[in-house]
Write a structure and sequence with these properties.
Number of strands: 10
Helix content: 25-40%
Distance between the termini: 120 Å
Structural class: alpha/beta
CATH architecture of the largest domain: Alpha-Beta Horseshoe
Radius of gyration: 38 Å
Strand content: 5-15%
Number of helices: 4
């Protein structure tokens, strides 16, 4: 068997060592990027290795994009967040607790918590500026949610929206109506879910019923008008034909008159 030159083996060994070293370095970098702490936050781990990221009271206006994807708990309370965009937390599949309380949140975009439906157990949205409840924002979410201390506006849209979410039922008791439509329902200051006798859709139902009655009356009027017009038009045609027959010679007129009468009959 032909032996390989020593310098050839040496060169290839060096190349293989460099490739292996590069692979190990890349793996370490990727792991570090995925598990390192966010630059603007403080991270800690418990005895079980569960990571907590605290970004409280940092005057943040946006959610940090570099939260490690193995994080279990995130605290973003006491910041200046005004909205949660769609897919804001899709990179955190293991998140069990999310605190967004004491911000200035007035908008939760559709799919704001998408991807957290199977992991998230507690969501805190208390003490914000949420007015409208959008069920699409809580898509697939089953977590226990704190919705207290928000200036909720209770109307028919809210009443219908509550049936379309899978949040833990007790969570919805945190929706206390600051304003309502219609105003005279007296629901202001009450937890809407605890006032089942209140029907905020009654005005819409009445409006719909009135609209249906108006439409039905309109169609009925059109049908009656058409029938009256049709009868009057036939009567006018018959009168003109009879006058024409009377103007004919007597024998021919009787014959055509008999034919006309038999046709009408």
């Amino acid at each position: 068997m032909m032996s390989l030159p020593a310098d050839w083996l040496l060169r290839h060994s060096v190349v293989m060592c460099l490739l292996l070293h590069s692979l190990v370095l890349m793996t370490f970098c990727f792991h570090h990027a995925a598990t390192s702490c966010s630059k603007s936050c403080y991270c800690s781990e418990n005895e079980s290795g569960e990571k907590t990221v605290r970004c409280s009271n940092l005057k943040l206006t946006e959610i940090p994009p570099d939260i490690p994807n193995d994080t279990r708990r995130v605290y973003l309370d006491f910041n200046l967040l005004t909205k949660i965009p769609s897919n804001a937390f899709t990179g955190l599949p293991n998140l069990v607790e999310l605190d967004l309380s004491h911000n200035a949140l007035n908008q939760l975009e559709p799919g704001a918590f998408r991807g957290l439906g199977f992991s998230l157990q507690f969501l805190d949205l208390s003490s914000n500026k949420l007015v409208r409840f959008n069920p699409e924002s809580f898509e697939g979410l089953r977590a226990r949610t704190n919705l207290t201390n928000n200036p909720w506006h209770c109307d028919c849209n809210l009443q219908m929206a509550l049936t379309r979410v899978d949040l833990e039922p007790a969570s919805l008791t945190g929706i206390v109506c600051q304003t309502s439509d219609p105003e005279e329902t007296g629901v202001q200051g009450l937890a809407f879910l605890l006032a089942p006798h209140i029907d905020l859709c009654v005005v819409m139902k009445r409006t719909t019923d009135v609209a249906m009655l108006v439409v039905m009356f309109g169609w009925f009027t059109m049908v009656i008008s058409y029938l009256v017009y049709y009868v009057r038009a036939n009567q006018e045609d018959a009168r003109r034909h009879l006058e024409y027959l009377k103007s004919l010679p007597r024998g021919q007129g009787k014959s055509e008159e008999s034919s006309t009468i038999s046709t009408v009959v």
